TrEMBL record:
Example GO molecular function: hydrolase activity
Sorted UniProt keywords: Endonuclease, Hydrolase, Nuclease
UniProt superkingdom: Bacteria
Source organism per UniProt: Dysgonomonas alginatilytica
Annotated Pfam families: YicC-like_C (PF08340), YicC-like_N (PF03755)
Family: Belongs to the YicC/YloC family.
Ranges of residues in domain Endoribonuclease YicC-like N-terminal: 2-155
Domain Endoribonuclease YicC-like C-terminal: 173-289
Protein name (database record): Uncharacterized protein (TIGR00255 family)
Keyword match Transcription: no
NCBIfam families for the chain: YicC/YloC family endoribonuclease
């Protein structure tokens, strides 16, 4: 079963004095492109977190973040008095020089400025990190489940598109023999328009056979059927089908393009255009497959 690279997971945990929220989202990417935001209190675990995400998600543009909300009545933050006074004096002086009013609520402005509040970060103990680690895994579980659901939708789409291409390929067959006769008739009529021109009918038949062989698309049809079959088989692989499916669609496109170049028939070329359209829709969605 295939998985999409698109997904989202979120999990929370309550500790005695804080609430931990873990959010992780992923989009499609050729390899793992990981962005991690971890509070300083858990910074020493960043390598372990990155390793866990890489092992479980394999590929994708992944954004990971841990948020801490203090639920304790006691605050661990302190006002940095020197910084606050420096900001106050700078704003007051700028106000006088520029002739603009000072803030109506000084503290509302000052407390939002960088470094005015100091936070006393305490190192997380083993028990706390165990809770955080479990929360990370829950968020990853959610994201993987999301990926599987998206993958099922993609799989249904691929099966439908492959079936459409198979049907269109079968629609070409009635025109093949008709095309040969049309080509032969067109050449004979062109020769007959030339006055006092005679030709060797045996040589003409030999040339026609050679020309018709150049237009033959049986090999392309056989190869395209094999590629379509292999594509469906690959959907059932355990993991990492995205790149392989991409390679198969390239081969499918090669056979469809060759069929179009050999068509030499309006209806056949119109069917080939429809096949290309179905294949392009497959290619677009294959980019999302893990």
């Amino acid at each position: 079963m295939i998985q999409s690279m698109t997904g989202f997971g979120k999990a929370t945990a309550e500790l005695s004095n804080k609430k931990i929220t873990v959010e992780i989202k992923s989009l499609n990417s050729k390899q793992l492109d990981l962005s991690v935001r971890i509070p300083s209190v858990y910074k020493e675990q960043e390598l372990n977190v990155r390793s866990l995400i890489a092992r479980r998600l394999e590929r994708g543009k992944v954004d990971f973040a841990i948020y801490i909300e203090n639920t304790s009545k006691e605050t661990t933050s302190q006002i940095n008095q020197n910084v606050l006074e420096a900001y106050y004096n700078q704003i007051k002086n700028s106000s006088e020089k520029l002739g603009v009013d000072v803030p109506a609520d000084w503290f509302q402005v000052l407390l939002r400025l960088p470094d005015v509040l100091k936070y006393e970060a305490q190192e997380a103990d083993e028990e706390e990190w165990k809770v955080v680690s479990d929360t990370i895994n829950k968020a990853l579980d959610q994201l993987v489940e999301f990926r599987k659901q998206e993958g099922k939708m993609l799989e249904d789409l691929f099966i439908q598109k492959v079936s459409n291409i198979s049907t269109l390929m079968a629609d070409i067959e009635p025109y093949e023999s008709e095309r040969v006769e049309k080509v032969k008739t067109r050449i004979i009529e062109a020769l007959q328009k030339i006055e006092n021109f005679d030709y060797d009918k045996n040589r003409f038949e030999q040339e026609m056979i050679y020309y018709i062989e150049k237009l033959d698309i049986n090999e392309e049809k056989v190869r395209l059927r094999n590629h379509l079959k292999y594509f469906l088989e690959t959907l059932n692989d355990t993991s990492g089908q995205g790149k392989k499916l991409g390679f198969i669609t390239q081969e499918m496109g090669r056979e469809i393009n060759t069929t179009g170049s050999k068509a030499n028939h309006v209806q056949m070329q119109q069917i080939v255009v429809q096949m290309k359209d179905e294949l392009e829709q497959i290619k677009e969605q294959v980019l999302n497959v893990l």
